[in-house]
Amino acid sequence: MFSFFKRKPKEEAATAPAQPAAAPLTAAAAPPASLPETASADSQPVLSDAAPEQKRSWLSRLKSGLAKTSSSLTTLFIGARIDDDLYDELEAALLTADAGVEATLFLLDTLKKKVKDEKLTEAEQVKTALKALLLELLTPLQKPLELGRHQPLVMMITGVNGAGKTTTIGKLAKHLQVHQQSVILAAGDTFRAAAREQLAIWGERNDVTVIAQESGDPAAVAFDAVASARARGTDVVMVDTAGRLPTQLHLMEELRKIKRVIAKGMDGAPQEVLLVIDGNTGQNALAQVRAFDDALQLTGLIITKLDGTAKGGVLAAIAKTRPVPVYFIGVGEQIEDLQPFNAQEFVDALLQ
Fold first, then answer.
1. pLDDT tens digits for 267-279?
2. What membrane topology term does the record carry (predicted)?
3. Residue 117, annotated ligand binder?
4. CA 70, 73, 74, 77: dihedral to nearest 10 degrees?
């Protein structure tokens, strides 16, 4: 079920620049027998017999999580006339769904042009056209997480308090193990004892080493974790960091320091800088993406908690104003509730 990581083909990996003094690739970095080597982004992984049922369950939960927004959008087209009133109601619905002003105006202007050019006369045709535009807007955000390119792959995980960052790290660690990747976790949130304890619990649950200190410099913890991974030939290092608001400038500077120190421990690291976002925070999520991207040059996003009051439109806002790839989305607390972002599935859930 968790076949969502794009693995670098052997021949491409062989020509990639070697990391200075990095440990050689271990056997664990080779593709598992159950998964084909991915030659292109279009290659499809082999799924287990239980995958179709699990997939249906996942899609059902995603649709349920986005049901409120879906209802407000789809009901507009029931028996509607294609006129200014429909466009006004659609504008209000998109703004309420957290799509933001820029994405909303872009979608409306493009939709009106499409309706005119294609001479659409039925409301259902307009709805289909809107789905196509949303899919076109969101598809560039869809990107797989690659394994096997770096040894180790160092992932720095950031986000504000309450976004589900530490829990997400635990889920990802388990998924990586399913793909035969050895993992080390770095408890870089040295300000909050509960965060270290929570990460330690995930480490015990997944039988993963956790590098931690009772107190001290989080950058030093990250450095030690990278050094340990290189010495052991570990495949992936995941560095937890303290949750903070983008307005806390001194703490944002500390994140920059952690990133610099990691780079000293391994040239080119961290290769992935991920921001975990609570899907319920609406336009605040876009502000977080801007701030953390400006500070750290994000490589990907993980959007959690799309299982309650989340409106989902914020992905459109992100795609239009700060198109950082969305690696994963989450709809619940279970490990299987975190899945790779698929634009087609998301749009289908949003406009059922």
1. 999 999 999 999 8
2. Peripheral membrane protein
3. no
4. 180
